[in-house]
């Protein structure tokens, strides 16, 4: 591309006069495959100042352009674009560079300037069930972290668990119920004192509420039930409510017994989260750094806001008012950073976190993977952080929002009986369905249980991940086991089978080769002949561009689109070499060694590129299914 850039500038200079030799040739990657590899739009932009018709300017440019060593003859298209198609020899060279990269990264270039990046993802709330929103955050965040690492950026994975503030036990982080923390702790101390003191361990599901006469006692099989039980007591029992109020004071003043109970609640929840993480094979470097971590830093956040003249008092609360934010009645909308009772907010913690990440972590880019509903929160927090100087302009703060997970009917995602779907159950179901797949359980398969379990995990969990990632993350997505496990369409099973198929061809070819060819056959040499080969080659060579697009706009769906198209190109390539009468495809036929070697080199590279992408997406490619 750099070479083309130079040649175009030289041509502009000789066609239109020396001063044009430094103008921008407006070289871009072709928008469609039919247009070739690159497109130059300079003639369109220069026509006016030159007083020429754009097509004439383009024709003049072509005349002066010397690229025959790189491209086929340039074509003027549409109103005056220049389409440039790289010569096959050049494609072959680039393929060889990709294939020669033994590190598994298929020659994806590293970023010129590595940026230390914090990816804040997953981030569920203590004493609450992880929900499908956290599933999306986990899957998307994990993928982005891997992709950024591939590009050479040092990545810090942070799990900003809601373990303290307003949202501790409240339904939403912005409209919080302050009672959450105190009542959960009170409930735990009263019903399971040994657990509260840390003397015993328990799973959340074991923490049964002591049945109270006259009170409906939901059986707490999970965090939600535990929360509900505590809430019911809080509403109905005077003593309990009073004890809870004392608890919050005790906790804030650092009372040991209180803190121990809080710690054991956190530990119980975290044990539940880590089951989901290991089922999802989330990167083990995801560090839990909950909201409580920032507690000691909150007072100084307030001091700095005060010093910066950003704080205002409103109804006893301390707030920041930003221009342009108003409520429905047109009144200025405050960002509350400290409530009248002295309590801090979700946003206060995020301000402290931004400062810590910029200063201590030395992050240059901070990504927040949460549902789109938190867009306003992040917009405001980012703006305050800038004004207060918590993050200099050299630190990019980016909210990476995603849409809702919906049921197949487009409504709220629930179980048949109307309950919130538990993630652990959902993943179990994915495994069960992948296993029940006829091909896996079919009689006469010689593979053992270990093989079946591994395939079921790759397919089942992979399907859940892929379905999420393949959607543009901004859209709401409808959760459907049938769709995500389908063997056709842009799904994990389709991609996994496509990969296994390529590997199968390679294996059979290798077996055939060992019969008829000497060892010299192994050197990869690309020779592109048929259009199907050239198409496949072009798609393979797009990899670097796709990766850097995703690095910029953080849309993993582009990776899925890319491998889906790649699998299609591979199929067409394969069919083009499949003689009408099976079973001996030309790929395998002991034809003259050189063409076979060239075809196999394409197979090999396709497999490597598919495997790399599947790994970035968090899906284990299988050699055989
Ligand atoms: N715990 C929050 C939730 O469940 C997400 C936290 C996201 N990260 C952050 N730094 N605010 O919605």
From TrEMBL:
GO terms for cellular component: cytoplasm. Residues 495-625 form the DALR anticodon binding domain. Its EC number is 6.1.1.19. Keywords: Aminoacyl-tRNA synthetase, ATP-binding, Ligase, Nucleotide-binding, Protein biosynthesis. CDD domains: ArgRS_core. Residues 2-86 form the Arginyl tRNA synthetase N-terminal domain. The keyword Zinc does not apply. It catalyses: tRNA(Arg) + L-arginine + ATP = L-arginyl-tRNA(Arg) + AMP + diphosphate. SUPFAM superfamilies: Anticodon-binding domain of a subclass of class I aminoacyl-tRNA synthetases, Arginyl-tRNA synthetase (ArgRS), N-terminal 'additional' domain, Nucleotidylyl transferase. InterPro entries: aa-tRNA-synth_I_CS, Arg-tRNA-ligase, Arg-tRNA-synth_N, Arg-tRNA-synth_N_sf, ArgRS_core, DALR_anticod-bd, Rossmann-like_a/b/a_fold, tRNAsynth_Ia_anticodon-bd. GO terms for molecular function: arginine-tRNA ligase activity; ATP binding. Belongs to the class-I aminoacyl-tRNA synthetase family. This is arginine--tRNA ligase. The lineage of its organism: Eukaryota, Haptista, Haptophyta, Prymnesiophyceae, Isochrysidales.
């Amino acid at each position: 591309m750099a070479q083309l850039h130079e040649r175009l500038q030289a041509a502009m200079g000789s066609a239109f006069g020396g001063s044009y030799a430094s103008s921008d040739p407006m070289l871009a990657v072709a928008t469609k495959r039919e247009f070739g590899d690159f497109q130059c739009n300079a003639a369109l932009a220069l026509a006016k100042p030159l007083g020429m018709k754009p097509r004439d300017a383009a024709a003049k440019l072509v005349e002066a352009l010397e690229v025959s060593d790189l491209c086929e003859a340039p074509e003027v298209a549409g109103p005056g674009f220049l389409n440039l198609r790289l010569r096959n020899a050049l494609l072959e060279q680039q393929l060889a560079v990709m294939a020669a990269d033994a590190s598994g990264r298929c020659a994806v270039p590293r970023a010129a300037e590595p940026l230390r990046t914090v990816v804040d993802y997953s981030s569920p709330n203590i004493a609450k069930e992880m929900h499908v929103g956290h599933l999306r955050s986990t899957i998307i965040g994990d993928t982005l972290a891997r992709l950024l690492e591939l590009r050479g950026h040092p990545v810090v994975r942070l799990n900003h668990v809601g373990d303290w503030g307003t949202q501790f036990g409240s339904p939403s982080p912005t409209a919080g119920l302050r009672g959450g923390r105190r009542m959960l702790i009170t409930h735990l101390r009263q019903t399971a004192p040994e657990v509260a003191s840390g003397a015993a361990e328990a799973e959340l599901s074991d923490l049964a509420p002591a049945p109270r006469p006259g009170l409906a006692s939901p059986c707490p099989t999970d965090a939600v039930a535990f929360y509900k039980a505590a809430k019911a007591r809080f509403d109905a029992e005077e003593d309990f409510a009073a004890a809870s109020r004392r608890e919050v004071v005790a906790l804030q003043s650092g009372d040991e017994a209180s803190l121990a109970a809080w710690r054991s609640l956190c530990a119980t929840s975290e044990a539940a989260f880590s089951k989901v993480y290991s089922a999802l094979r989330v990167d083990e470097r995801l560090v839990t750094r909950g909201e409580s971590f920032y507690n000691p830093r909150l007072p100084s956040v307030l001091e700095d806001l005060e010093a910066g003249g950003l704080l205002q008092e409103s109804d006893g609360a301390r707030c920041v008012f930003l221009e342009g934010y108003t409520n429905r009645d047109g009144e200025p909308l405050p960002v509350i950073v400290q409530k009248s009772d002295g309590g801090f907010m979700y946003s206060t913690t995020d301000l402290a976190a931004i400062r810590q990440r910029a200063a201590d972590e030395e992050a240059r880019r901070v990504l927040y993977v949460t549902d789109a509903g938190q867009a306003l929160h992040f917009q405001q927090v980012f703006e305050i952080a800038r004004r207060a100087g918590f993050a200099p302009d050299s630190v990019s703060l980016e909210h990476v929002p995603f849409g809702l997970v919906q049921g197949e009917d487009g409504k709220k995602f629930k179980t048949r009986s109307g309950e919130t779907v538990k993630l652990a159950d959902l993943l179990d179901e994915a495994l069960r369905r992948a296993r029940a797949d006829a091909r896996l359980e079919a009689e006469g398969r010689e593979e053992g249980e270990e093989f079946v379990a591994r395939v079921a995990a790759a397919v089942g969990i992979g399907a859940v991940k892929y379905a999420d990632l393949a959607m543009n993350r901004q859209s709401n997505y409808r959760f459907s086991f049938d769709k995500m496990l389908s063997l056709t369409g842009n799904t994990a099973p389709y991609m996994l089978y496509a990969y296994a198929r390529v590997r199968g061809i390679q294996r059979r070819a290798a077996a055939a080769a060992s019969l008829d060819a000497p060892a010299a056959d192994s050197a990869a040499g690309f020779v592109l002949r048929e259009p199907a080969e050239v198409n496949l080659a072009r798609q393979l060579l797009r990899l670097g561009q796709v990766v850097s697009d995703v690095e910029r706009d953080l849309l993993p769906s582009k990776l899925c689109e890319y491998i889906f198209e790649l699998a299609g190109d591979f199929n067409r390539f394969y069919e083009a070499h499949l003689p009408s009468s099976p079973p001996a495809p030309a790929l395998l036929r002991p034809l003259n060694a050189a063409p076979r070697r060239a075809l196999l080199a394409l197979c090999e590279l396709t497999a490597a590129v598919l495997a790399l992408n599947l790994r970035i997406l968090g899906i284990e490619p299988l050699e055989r299914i």
